[in-house]
Amino acid sequence: MTDLADRTILVTGASSGIGLAIVQRLASTGARVIAHANTNPDGARRAVASFPSDRAHVVQADLADPAGAGRLWEQAETWAGRIDVVVLNAAIMPRIELDDTDERWQAVMEQALQVNTLSQLTLIRRALAHFAGHDGGTIVGLSSWVTQRGSGHANLVAYAASKAATAAAIKTIARTHADRNVLAYLIAPGAVDTGMSATASADRGGREEFLRALAMGEMVPPEEIAELVSLLASGRVRHLSGATLDINGASYIR
After folding, report:
1. What is its EC number (predicted)?
2. CATH homologous superfamily of domain 8-247?
3. Which residues share a beta bridge with 182?
4. How many angstroms separate the Cα of 68 from the Cα of each of 44, 71, 103, 162, 166?
5. What is the dihedral of CA 126, 181, 14, 164, to 10 degrees?
């Protein structure tokens, strides 16, 4: 089992899906965890239910608000004192047709970029300033296979573009901060068995049709991603820093 008893880990988007699985997996590692939620704080509280009360904390912040990421970091740092690992999992996947109105196009693009890119960059910036005073730290970004291959549906262009921008930023941090004991990784899932993938599969003939297009005929269990996060958070694979780790059941091999 991974031992993270000396680590404090901030996980964004922890109330459901991949984030929920990550927090629940970390319960067995001894880590202290800060679980972020926005509209579903009860989900985050359920995620940390098995932690001792002094080793888990829930913070609520709206990453669609330009000031939300800063408030999230301040709450987390106030509770924890020191944060060793930041897991950037929170994201939205809005759909927008290319021939939609200009007003709706602008609104959806701004929302996707705010939540999936700008808020993440704020947290990265805050984390780097914090790590500078604590001999380094680790950033794990939850990316997507769409950052390499593009989305299979044009109405997810906002999601694909925003996720790709954040992936480029994390790769840049890995290169430029390696000599400061900052490790940065990207996990690029394919289709994960969450509500977000259910939304995507609706555009492709439904769940069964969607599964037929996958090499294993099944989506990635969120628990497998959580296992990978716990390994990266441990610091035992330092020289993977900068890597993008594909996890898609052989449906996209590059």
Report:
1. 1.1.1.100
2. NAD(P)-binding Rossmann-like Domain (3.40.50.720)
3. 137
4. 17, 5, 24, 18, 17
5. 80
The region of weakest confidence among 152-161, 208-217, 235-244 is 208-217
Coil/strand/helix, residue 42: helix
Q: Token pair for residue 74?
A: 């301040």
Q: 245: helix, coil or strand?
A: strand
Measured between alpha carbons, how far is residue 14 from residues 10, 39, 40, 130 in Å?
9, 11, 9, 22
Q: The pTM is what?
A: 0.95
Q: 88-92, 148-152, 159-163, 191-195: which has the minimum mean pLDDT?
A: 191-195
DSSP conformation letters of 207-226: HHHHHHTSTTSSPBPHHHHH
In angstroms, rounded to a whole number, what is the distance separating the alpha carbons of residues 139 and 6? 16
Q: What is the pLDDT of residue 197?
A: 65
Site of tokens 């972020």: 36
Tokens read off for 163: 């996720």
| Contact indicator for 199, 192 with CB cutoff of 8 Å | no
Task: Report the mean per-residue pLDDT for the chain.
Answer: 95
Burial class (CB in 10 A: 0-12, 13-18, 19+), 250: exposed
Q: State mean pLDDT over 217-240.
A: 96
User: For 50, which DSSP code?
Assistant: T
Q: What are the residue boundaries of the structural domains of the chain, listed by start?
A: 8-247
CA 68, 173, 227, 75 dihedral sign is: negative
Coil, helix or strand at residue 74: helix
As given in the structure block, the two tokens for residue 196 are 């977000």
